[in-house]
Design goal:
Length: 222
């Protein structure tokens, strides 16, 4: 028999940056590497979950046993994430752009005597808050991320209630997280806070996947 603890569970994971087009050749993006989210998708699959990874542009290979959906913009990421529901587990680790270009130019914007263009931005929807909102499709366990440079625990806890998710993984991004293979995090839940020391992102991912498995195990024993 297959004793993997997340067998029969469905998970959706978002990872990487988003890319918000300005015109056919230019866009707004950020420095997220996607490594932590990819490692989480991989660790959940290893424990038996059926994982859909909704990924912004990263250049990383598809983890073994994971089905990946490639997206560019926040709006595409939101649609693909919602299309992956229902799921038991949602881990939204993507660095979603807060804003997108209001009107994407159909042709390449030309340099000219009129000077530089003005780019009007509008706010992107919050994918995490939408997924965590009460409703028939809400996953049983919704996990968000908080990248902070100060007051990590207070900011992560505030995000937990503001977004309505169950757990927040907080990282201090003031030193060497973006693109790095290592990470130190706080796991913030309604029951308390745990501090996980700096270790490879793959080890953080395995620890998080094991915690997720424990969570479902505890629920099914109730
Ligand atoms: O508000 P902030 O961007 O700091 O929140 C980070 C968390 O929210 C991450 O889990 C991120 O994936 C998620 N998020 C999202 N959609 C957005 C912005 C953030 O899902 N538009």
């Amino acid at each position: 028999p297959d004793g993997r603890p997340l067998l029969g569970r469905k998970a959706v994971v978002t990872a990487g940056p988003t890319f918000e087009a300005i015109d056919p050749v230019r866009g707004l993006t950020n420095r997220s590497s996607g490594k932590q989210g990819y490692a989480i998708a991989s660790a959940l699959a290893t424990l038996g979950a059926e994982v859909t990874l909704v990924s912004g542009p990263t250049g990383l290979p598809v983890p073994v046993g994971v089905s990946r959906i490639d997206v560019e913009s926040a709006l595409e990421m939101k649609a693909a994430t919602e299309a992956a529901l229902p799921a038991d587990i949602a881990v939204l680790s993507a660095a979603v752009a807060d804003w997108r270009i209001d009107t994407i130019s159909g042709g390449k914007i030309k340099k000219g005597p009129g000077g530089p263009p003005t780019l009007a931005l509008i706010e992107n929807p919050d994918i995490l808050a939408g997924i965590a909102a009460p409703g028939p499709n809400r996953p049983a366990l919704v996990i968000g991320f908080a990248a902070e440079t100060t007051e990590l625990e207070a900011n992560a806890r505030a995000k937990l209630s503001r977004k309505g998710c169950d757990w927040i993984v907080g990282n201090d991004v003031s030193d060497d997280v973006f693109g790095s293979d290592g990470n130190a995090v706080l796991l913030v839940t309604r029951d308390g806070t745990e501090s996980w020391p700096r270790q490879p992102k793959t080890a953080i991912a395995r620890q998080l996947a094991a915690r997720i498995a424990d969570h479902f195990n505890a629920i099914s024993l109730k």
